[in-house]
């Protein structure tokens, strides 16, 4: 009996192991592979993504999310929560930025209250369906179900109630100034919310309209702490409305169409027409088809079920931000409420993204896969410049005073160089030059310390401008992107040379005694004392070990400073072999990014934050591509999963997701504003990329497995190819890449000078 038990246990274990290793073929419905709950198991102190289950269409103006957190809590949905307070319209890019223009809708039975604690109902993930285009949840305390499916600016709700005389639907317009009006003869509620976390003009409002499919049995409105029956409208700090229904049988449904507008109540009514003549189930189908269409532009085959789920969940996150901030008026024209000057103006506008995060690979991903979307985004950036005087660096919805750098230059330059030929390029070129040479109206717009940088080539450590070394390094890269753009636009040679020369300013902060980047005082002396493990201070959400690699434009030049390719290779190795020690004295406590590095067991490599996410690819620049291949696989395997704790830090508006999407396919844009991608180690046997121009990129990986992670040989369009990079312009023609993979590194491939990826110092090759 004991032997039978041991044998059966062994067989069971073997079958489980085989199921994990089993590869999945072509996925016909990639939306079925998406989990919108990845990253929702997060807290203030430890991020596993800091996401929420966004119910939305790609780049939609309005998202919706179940709300487990209190009103105003940036962590609106936590996977570990036990109660749900409603379904919230949200425009939140991250919990750190919080929200604006939000309101919440909730269903209740026999509980006539607006109090967010008293109305909350227990729920379970076992009775929850969370998809990009559809969300439903069973409210255990009310024996009811809420379902929602969105359009770009509207949404359809379906409430299923038990038999009762006391079914209620609540609209909570939140505090900080709100208004509601119930119009019973039209079975409608209108109003507005002004609650925001900044970045809005004084006249900001989010106007909403709810259209019900049946008459109200009773109605109430509340203001602050007082609920009044029969009162039709109220304006105060915190208002809402409660409408009641009688359901004659169990399972009876109430349908509500909801839309909103940043322009006017009339425009909200126009936006409601996105649901005109459509049933709830028809809209679910339309949303499903839209998501499937976008997700299926990249078909992956021959990976594990977890890898495929992780890939498509990451791809979903890569298609949410920046969101639309424009609407279609009664004449069919594109218009927007300007978050920069408060006026209603023609043209596109997008928002809710931080370029410090997303310049690295989210925007390059759009340029590869969705150039038609980024063309509209570029027009929106030109409008932002016209309306606000500077390009935004972190928009939510207007200027926000957070993070460092002037990376709007990269956003503009990479789009143009990758073929997104916006009609506004001259306006945008003017905008990036202005931002590169001037301090803006706030620290995070334009360049803080611009006068110092223009004079010295760096922002000094001792002039009371925090995170100065990080700023200086990013400014030098941003100057490079302007140089690239100026060259592409055939601007005067002296103008090109001006920005090219400043692209080398990174050299001013390299300390040869430590082999790392370091803050420098105004008089040219080094800041002291220097601790390369100190987070913050001269750097941004990282330390010198992270920011010393922020020379995207000239890795060859960085290698020379470090003593050559072999020395830089050792330095890269050290990032993984050093213990995850840290100095948090600048902050006074371990910020969540510190803790996420500490617990990841990858040394000083902190994939949970953006500054170092490109670092693994740099082995390609020093002739050791097999080390990139090893560590990229390790990062994908260990730092990502399709589970609620599936990220190793903040997801950040698609950046950390797009890293996975690119890396899983086998290449990555280390240097935006150039024509190149650096090669990695593809995890799928087959990838088919359907480009916007009708061409396809086919990527095949033979003998691929977790063990066989090393490139033995690569054929590009059926010809042997030894380079560590591929060109964007070649991919756009349609391409075939065939990798032969193996268990041992091929140390003869990708090692010659001609195989190395782009560096400014090698530009004339």
TrEMBL record:
GO terms for cellular component: cytosol. Keywords: Calcium, Hydrolase, Signal. Monomer. Residues 34-261 form the Glycosyl hydrolase family 92 N-terminal domain. The keyword Manganese does not apply. GO terms for molecular function: carbohydrate binding; peptide-N4-(N-acetyl-beta-glucosaminyl)asparagine amidase activity. Residues 1-21 form the signal peptide. InterPro entries: 6-hairpin_glycosidase_sf, GH-type_carb-bd, GH92_a_mannosidase_put, GH92_N, Glyco_hydro_92, PNGase. GO terms for biological process: carbohydrate metabolic process; glycoprotein catabolic process. PANTHER family: PEPTIDE N-GLYCANASE PNGASE -RELATED, PUTATIVE-RELATED. Its cofactor is Ca(2+). This is Glycoside hydrolase family 92 protein. It comes from Sphingobacterium zhuxiongii. Residues 267-742 form the Glycosyl hydrolase family domain. Residues 743-765 are annotated as: Disordered. Pfam families: Glyco_hydro_92, Glyco_hydro_92N. The lineage of its organism: Bacteria, Pseudomonadati, Bacteroidota, Sphingobacteriia, Sphingobacteriales.
């Amino acid at each position: 009996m004991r032997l039978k038990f041991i044998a059966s246990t062994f067989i069971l274990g073997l079958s489980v192991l085989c199921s994990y290793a089993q590869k999945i073929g072509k996925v016909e419905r990639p939306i079925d592979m998406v989990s919108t709950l990845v990253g929702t198991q997060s807290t203030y102190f430890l991020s596993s993504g800091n996401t929420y289950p966004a119910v939305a269409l790609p780049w939609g103006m309005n998202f919706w999310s179940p709300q487990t957190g209190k009103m105003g809590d940036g962590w609106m949905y936590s996977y570990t929560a036990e109660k749900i307070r409603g379904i919230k319209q949200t425009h939140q890019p991250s919990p750190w930025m919080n929200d604006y223009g939000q309101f919440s809708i909730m269903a209740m039975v026999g509980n006539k209250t607006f109090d967010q604690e008293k109305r909350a109902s227990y729920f379970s993930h076992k009775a929850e369906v969370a998809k990009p285009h559809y969300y439903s949840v069973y409210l255990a305390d009310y024996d009811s179900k809420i379902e929602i499916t969105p359009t770009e600016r509207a949404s359809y709700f379906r409430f299923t109630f038990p038999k009762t005389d006391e079914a209620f639907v609540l609209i909570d317009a939140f505090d900080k100034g709100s208004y509601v009006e119930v119009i019973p003869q039209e079975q409608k509620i209108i109003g507005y919310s002004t609650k925001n976390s900044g970045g809005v003009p004084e006249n900001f409002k989010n106007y909403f309209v709810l259209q019900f499919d049946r008459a109200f049995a009773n109605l109430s409105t509340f203001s602050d702490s007082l609920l009044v029956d029969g009162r039709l409208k109220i304006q105060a700090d915190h208002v809402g409305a409660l409408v009641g229904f009688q359901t004659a049988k169990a399972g009876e449904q109430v349908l509500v169409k909801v839309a909103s507008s940043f322009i006017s109540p009339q425009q909200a009514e126009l936006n409601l027409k996105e649901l005109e003549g459509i049933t709830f189930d028809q809209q679910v189908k339309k949303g499903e088809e839209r998501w499937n269409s976008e997700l299926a532009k990249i078909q992956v085959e021959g990976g594990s079920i977890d890898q495929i789920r992780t890939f498509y969940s990451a791809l979903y996150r890569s298609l949410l931000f920046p969101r639309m901030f424009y609407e279609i008026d009664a004449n069919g024209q594109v218009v927007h409420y300007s978050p920069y000057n408060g006026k209603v103006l023609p043209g596109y506008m997008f928002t809710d993204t931080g370029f410090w995060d997303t310049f690295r690979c989210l925007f390059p991903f759009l340029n590869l896969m969705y150039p038609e979307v980024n063309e509209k985004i570029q027009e929106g950036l030109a409008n932002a410049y016209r309306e606000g005087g500077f390009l935004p660096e972190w928009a939510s919805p207007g200027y926000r005073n957070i993070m460092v750098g002037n990376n709007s230059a990269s956003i503009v330059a990479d789009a143009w160089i990758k073929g997104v030929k916006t009609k506004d390029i001259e306006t945008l070129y003017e905008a990036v030059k202005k931002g590169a040479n001037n301090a803006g109206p706030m620290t995070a717009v334009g360049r803080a310390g611009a006068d110092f940088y223009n004079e010295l080539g760096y922002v000094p450590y001792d002039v009371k401008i925090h995170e100065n070394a990080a700023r200086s390094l990013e400014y030098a890269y941003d100057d490079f992107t302007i140089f690239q753009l100026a060259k592409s636009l055939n601007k005067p040679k002296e103008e090109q040379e001006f920005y090219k020369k400043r692209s080398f300013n990174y050299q001013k902060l390299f300390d040869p005694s430590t082999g790392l980047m370091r803050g420098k005082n105004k008089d040219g002396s080094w800041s002291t004392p220097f601790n390369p493990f100190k987070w913050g201070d001269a750097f941004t959400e990282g330390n010198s070990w992270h920011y010393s690699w922020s020379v995207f434009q000239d890795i060859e030049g960085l290698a020379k400073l470090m003593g050559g390719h072999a020395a830089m290779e050792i330095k890269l190795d050290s990032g993984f072999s050093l213990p995850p020690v840290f100095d948090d004295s600048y902050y006074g406590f371990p910020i969540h990014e510190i803790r996420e590095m500490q617990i990841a067991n990858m040394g000083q490599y902190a994939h949970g934050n953006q500054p170092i996410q490109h670092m693994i690819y740099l082995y390609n620049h020093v002739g050791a591509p097999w080390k990139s291949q090893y560590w990229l696989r390790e990062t994908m395997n260990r730092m990502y999963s399709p589970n609620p704790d599936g990220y190793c830090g903040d997801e950040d508006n698609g950046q950390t997701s797009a890293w996975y999407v690119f890396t899983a396919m086998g290449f990555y844009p280390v240097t935006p504003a150039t024509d190149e991608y650096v090669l990695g180690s593809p995890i799928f046997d087959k990838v088919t990329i359907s480009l916007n121009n009708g061409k396809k990129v086919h990527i095949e990986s033979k003998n691929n497995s977790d063990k066989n992670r090393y490139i033995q040989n690569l054929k590009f369009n059926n010809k042997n190819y030894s380079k560590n990079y591929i060109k964007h312009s070649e991919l756009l023609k349609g391409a075939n890449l065939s990798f032969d993979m193996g268990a041992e590194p091929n140390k003869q491939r990708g090692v010659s000078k001609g195989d190395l990826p782009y560096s400014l110092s090698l530009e004339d090759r």
